[in-house]
């Protein structure tokens, strides 16, 4: 068995996953590309388990199983986030999400705390919320 | 080139080709189905590499659960059935970084392993994997179960906004829900934190 074949396959899968994460706009497709990257890592782990001698036997396969479980947890939370995003904005395009919040000029737009300077409505509601938190 | 090499080469070609289709196709549903082909080919490579348990867990969890969840998400976000033109961003930086990462890693691994051969261990070792998981790796295993529980709770909390952050009762009726989008909730959460810290 030539170990270079699965290693190169895993490297190419990882590169395709990176390309997909950076290229795609749809959040579900971004998650699919993340799955490709996780599979590349799993393939590296299993191949290393087969080809290399370790102190603990089968550590690579155990790690691959752990990564599969982590991927399942990641996809559950990720899809919950995507569905919540779709419910709020009716779109799952990741480049339309405003990462830097809108700075309303009159609402005290301090750059250190960007979430506090959302809209004027949000700021006034925040002022209304604060005594509630004190009780 | 033995039979194992030819099998690995064929499965790797199928995996890489279908992965290229996953990141390149313009049909959302077809991307999910190509992902099934890719994950199945990787599971076949696990079988050839004498990792039988990992292969079947891959088929069960990835092909059985993850892809089904992804297809659910595709349908719940009202994806169009045909080809859609707005799936991609202009992608020269993506091609540069992805190609650089993939080809760089491939060059590194080719340089490390050249064309050496390795004896395959005997297959069918689920019992030994189980011994390892429950002896050497039992603490990560338990931590992983806690992580799964927290992911479960987190997904439930995320998908139900009524059990999220505690809302003040007096201003609830006057508040226009979902009018401001995510900035609305983020502002509320930050305000709540500041209120508690004072």
Characteristic key phrases:
heterodimer, A: 135 residues, mainly alpha, 67% helix, 0% strand, elongated, disordered C terminus, B: 198 residues
How would you describe what is shown here?
The complex is a heterodimer of chains A (135) and B (198). Chain A is mainly α and 135 residues long. In chain A, 67% of the residues lie in helices and 0% in strands. By secondary structure, chain B is mainly alpha-helical. In chain B, 70% of the residues lie in helices and 0% in strands. Chain B is built from seven helices and no strands. In chain B, helix 1 packs antiparallel against helix 2 and helix 2 (28-48) runs antiparallel to helix 3. The N and C termini of chain B lie far apart (71 Å). At the A-B interface, helix 1, helix 2, helix 3 and helix 4 of A face helix 1, helix 2, helix 3, helix 4 and helix 5 of B.
Oligomeric state as shown: heterodimer
Distance between the termini of chain A: 69 Å
What proportion of the residues of chain B is helical, as a percent range? Answer: 55-70%
Count of runs of 4 or more consecutive helical residues of chain A: 4
- Mean pLDDT, all residues of chain B: 82
* Shape designation of chain B: globular
Q: Mind describing the biggest β-sheet of chain B?
A: none
Total strand count of chain A, please?
0
Sheet-strand content of chain A, in percent, reads under 5%
What's a concise summary of this model?
By secondary structure, chain A is mainly alpha-helical. In chain A, 67% of the residues lie in helices and 0% in strands. Chain A starts with a helix and ends with a helix.
Which helices and strands occur, and which strands form pairs?
The complex is a heterodimer of chains A (135) and B (198).
Chain A: H1 4-23, H2 27-51, H3 59-89, H4 120-134
Chain B: H1 3-24, H2 28-48, H3 52-76, H4 92-113, H5 126-135, H6 138-159, H7 182-197
Helix pairs in contact in B: 1-2, 2-3
């Amino acid at each position: 068995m030539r170990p270079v074949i699965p290693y190169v396959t895993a490297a190419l899968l990882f590169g395709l996953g990176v390309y997909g994460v950076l290229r795609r706009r749809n959040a579900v497709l971004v998650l699919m590309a993340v799955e490709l990257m996780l599979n590349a890592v799993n393939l590296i782990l299993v191949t290393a388990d087969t080809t290399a001698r370790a102190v603990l036997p089968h550590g690579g396969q155990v790690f691959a199983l752990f990564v599969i479980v982590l991927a399942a947890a990641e996809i559950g939370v990720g899809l919950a986030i995507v569905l919540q995003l779709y419910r709020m904005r009716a779109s799952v395009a990741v480049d339309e999400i405003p990462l830097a919040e809108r700075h309303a000029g009159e609402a005290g737009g301090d750059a250190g705390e960007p979430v506090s300077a959302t809209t004027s409505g949000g700021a006034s509601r925040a002022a209304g919320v604060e005594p509630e938190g004190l009780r | 080139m033995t039979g194992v090499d030819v099998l690995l080469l064929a499965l790797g070609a199928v995996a890489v080709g279908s992965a290229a289709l996953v990141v390149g196709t313009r049909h959302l549903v077809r991307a999910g189905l190509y992902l099934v082909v890719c994950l199945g080919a990787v599971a076949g490579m696990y079988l050839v590499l004498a990792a039988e348990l990992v292969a079947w867990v891959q088929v069960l969890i990835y092909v059985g659960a993850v892809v089904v969840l992804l297809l659910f998400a595709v349908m719940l976000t009202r994806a169009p059935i045909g080809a859609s033109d707005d799936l991609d961003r202009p992608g020269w930086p993506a091609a540069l970084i992805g190609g650089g990462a993939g080809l760089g890693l491939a060059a590194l691994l080719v340089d490390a392993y050249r064309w050496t051969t390795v004896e395959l261990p005997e297959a069918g070792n689920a019992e030994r994997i189980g011994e390892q998981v429950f002896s050497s790796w039992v603490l990560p295993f338990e931590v992983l179960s806690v992580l799964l529980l927290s992911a479960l709770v987190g997904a439930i909390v995320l998908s139900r906004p009524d059990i999220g952050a505690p809302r003040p009762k007096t201003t609830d009726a006057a508040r226009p829900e979902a009018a401001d989008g995510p900035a609305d909730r983020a502002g509320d959460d930050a305000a709540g934190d500041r209120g508690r810290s004072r």
